[in-house]
Amino acid sequence: MTDFIFISANDIHISDTGPRSRIDNFKETMLGKIDQMRIACSKLQADAALITGDLYNLKNPSKNSHRLNQELIQAFRKFPCPIYMIPGNHDLTGNNLESLQEQPLGVLYADGTLVNLTHEILKKNGHKVSLVGIPYIDNFDISTIQIPDKDDSIIQICLMHVYAGPKGTMLFKNRIYGYDELSVLDPDIFILGHYHIDQGIQELGGKHFINIGSMSRGVLSEEDVNHQPQLGFIKISIDDDKKVTRTIQSIKLKIKPVEEVFDMKKWEEAKEESKEIEQFVTKLLDDTKAVQEAGSDFNVVLNTMDITKAVRDKVLHFIHEASATK
After folding, report:
1. Nearest to 162 by CA among 88, 97, 226, 212
2. Is the pLDDT of residue 112 over 50?
3. Global model pTM greater than 0.90
4. Taking 90 as the threshold, does the pLDDT of residue 222 lie above it?
5. Of 110, 117, 141, 220, which one's alpha carbon is 20 to 30 angstroms from that of 173?
6. pLDDT at 219
7. Spatial separation of the C-alpha atoms in residues 68 and 74, rounded to whole Å
8. Cα distance between residue 305 and residue 323, in whole Å
9. What is the Cα 218 distance to its own chain's centre?
10. What Cα–Cα distance (Å) separates residue 178 from each residue in 39, 69, 210, 224?
11. Cβ neighbours around 12 below 10 Å, total
């Protein structure tokens, strides 16, 4: 019997400082979860650790300190196995893959701490497992995705950073791909990041979808602060008769009670601000005439709106980031 074992994590979103609603030491909390992942890899004798993007929370490279990167390098170098990761949108400036070399994640790739997963073949006792990575892609179109051939690998595992769920739908203005849509692709197992809400582990048409939500809590407005962060566990076994079996489940991480982590008043304030931003962006997109009259100076439009300074600052940040991608 030959076993291939993998431990996966989604959307870590580490930063030097956490959301203002956090009352714990956010960076230390997330480093602690990374260490729990390391311990799981050691105890379960993992062949590889898999991370589906968004290691960082802040997209601007200057917002992530050298100290943070040093601590991440130290933490990941303690792992007993290679760590394969794909870039998420929060690991990039303006959601642009070309910015990777300027990003902290690019440093961890260049250093060899993490492996930028595109296509890797793991071999053991004459058997192979194929690992494929699909990073975050702006305006993701499944018809353009090219997956390397599985060839003689017993299983192909695909990491993707894309909104996906049991059923296709829309989230605000983002499309959520249904598992039936993803299942047209060749991989046997999909590990899905980007959608922070836990969708569980499901099987459809002989394919598995691991979509267990973010390893962090409370960095995005739609998240439930009661979310239970988890790791994914994948065991691929092949016996002497070449029969392949899969064992796929989640591993709960140890976390503190909500009241020890969040200031709920500030959490509610942050949620209200996010609603304001959503409403404002919708109006801004509809109010084409006002934008045209303002030219490139969106401050003119912003100053006519009845919104708080915090919301105004966030909107400006989003607009400037979007402009950088043009």
Report:
1. 88
2. yes
3. no
4. no
5. 117
6. 77
7. 10
8. 21
9. 14
10. 33, 35, 13, 22
11. 28
Name the DSSP letter for residue 177: E
**250 contact partners, CB below 8 Å, separation of at least 6:** 201, 210, 212, 230, 231, 232, 233
Distance CA 290, CA 292 (A): 5
Dist. CA 324–CA 326, nearest whole Å: 6
Please give the helix or strand (H or E) that residue 283 lies within, else none.
helix 264-286
> Which tokens go with 164?
């996906």
Calpha distance 311→201 (Å, rounded): 36
Q: Is the separation of the CB atoms in 41 and 82 below 8 Å?
A: no
Q: What tokens were used for 225?
A: 């602060």
pLDDT score for 299: 60
Other residues' Cβ atoms within 10 Å of the Cβ of residue 207: 18
Q: For the chain, how long is the longest CA-to-CA vector?
A: 72
Residue with tokens 């192979």, as numbered in its chain:
128
Burial group, residue 247, by CB count within 10 angstroms (0-12, 13-18, 19+): exposed
Q: Classify strands 169-171 and 164-165 as parallel, antiparallel or unpaired.
A: unpaired
Round to whole Å and give the CA distance between 13 and 53: 9
Q: What are phi and psi of 263, to 5 degrees?
A: -90, 105
Residue 206 CA to residue 81 CA, distance in Å, equals: 28
